[in-house]
Amino acid sequence: MGVFLVVTHGKGSLDLYSLRLSQYIDVPVIHTDIYQRVSEQFSKSIFDPPIVKRTLVAFSFIKRLHELPGIPHLPNHHLGRFGFFLKKPFIVTIHDVIRYLDTKNLTPLIHKPSLQDSFWINLDYRGALKAAKIIVPSNYTKKDLIRYFHVDEEKIKVIYHGVDEIFKPTYGKRPCQEPYILYVGSEHPRKNLQTLLKAFYLLKKDPKFKELKLVKVGRAGGGEADFRGETLKTIQALNLEKEVIFIEWVPSQKDLASFYTQAELFVFPSIYEGFGWPPLEAMACGCPVISSNATCMPEILGDAAIYINPYDVKGLHQKMVEVLTDEGLRGKLSVKGLKRAKIFSWERTAKETLKVYREIEGLSKLAPIA
């Protein structure tokens, strides 16, 4: 019984993972927008009319997985709700436990979920944990699964994501004419953009950085909360309205590569990541990186980044000054970053994923599905 890959279509990073994997791995695939439908369900009332329609679509998808011959690979943990109802073995990729932690913690990483959302999130993880094999993108996520869910270590395989080949030193479009610091990502609380804004405010008090801008690329976040509103409140309080440039969506990865390449510095102060693509993409483009020292970031970025405590505004300000004023340091970070990013290829990801497929296919008997 062979493995088939479920490829989800959408604009999120979890969709990108399944799409890239399908391009580098030679197995049957099925294409679906089911994850897009799942994500739209968050923060909706149980009485919302489309809920019934989406529920019917969900059961139809489960039936499809049952009827297709072979072992499905569900490419993200939010498809775990479908795995929960499967009566055959499957593989799942759990990228992180962020949403699970949001159901437990008072201080949200994204947003404190409603009771309904908590039900679905817990079902996602309960279903995902039933998988015959779990793939994770970092040892940190592996440790989280063992810590919070007591998963058998032998069941988990760490396979790092790849970095798209288009991310390389590229000189094309710029987001602005002035020199700029770049941040790519959402404005969820876990991304910790507030610390960067406060450190940038301290930077702007120095006349040397009068022309410097902060460019923020990416959507604010989903409809769970007014993430952009919170960001704008901070910007207004710091009187940075004319200093921060928002770019919601970059239509071309080549343009994004150019943004990375021409930035003076890339800053990633995140509190929690399961992997963290943006700083690696910046490194692949030769841009020096300052990152938080939280969760998986030191594991992924190695010695190619400068690390800061994500809550230390003054410490981040100091490190930004060092990188912006020391050409030698900038050059060293650029060289190390280019070398580090080359480790993370989709070919390697696909090769290691295929080994997991073959391992599952080769087992004559799998543990019965509970």
Describe the structure.
The longest helix is centred in the first third of the chain and has 18 residues, at 50-67. Helix 1 crosses helix 15 (346-362) and helix 8 packs across helix 13. This protein has helices spanning 13-24, 34-41, 50-67, 80-83, 98-104, 115-128, 139-149, 193-204, 227-237, 253-262, 277-284, 297-301, 313-325, 327-341, 346-362; strands at 3-8, 29-32, 71-74, 91-93, 133-136, 156-158, 180-184, 213-217, 244-247, 265-268, 289-292, 306-308. The protein folds into two domains: 3-162 and 346-362, 3-Layer(aba) Sandwich (Rossmann fold), CATH 3.40.50.2000; 180-341, Rossmann fold (3-Layer(aba) Sandwich), CATH 3.40.50. The chain has a six-stranded parallel beta sheet. A six-stranded parallel beta sheet has the order 9-8-7-10-11-12, sandwiched between helices. It is globular and about 65 Å long. Strand 3 (71-74), helix 4 and strand 4 (91-93) form a beta-alpha-beta unit. By secondary structure, the protein is an alpha/beta fold. The protein is 45% helix and 13% strand.
Task: Compile the SSE list and pairings.
Layout: E1 3-8, H1 13-24, E2 29-32, H2 34-41, H3 50-67, E3 71-74, H4 80-83, E4 91-93, H5 98-104, H6 115-128, E5 133-136, H7 139-149, E6 156-158, E7 180-184, H8 193-204, E8 213-217, H9 227-237, E9 244-247, H10 253-262, E10 265-268, H11 277-284, E11 289-292, H12 297-301, E12 306-308, H13 313-325, H14 327-341, H15 346-362
Parallel strand pairs: 1-2, 1-3, 3-4, 4-5, 5-6, 7-8, 7-10, 8-9, 10-11, 11-12
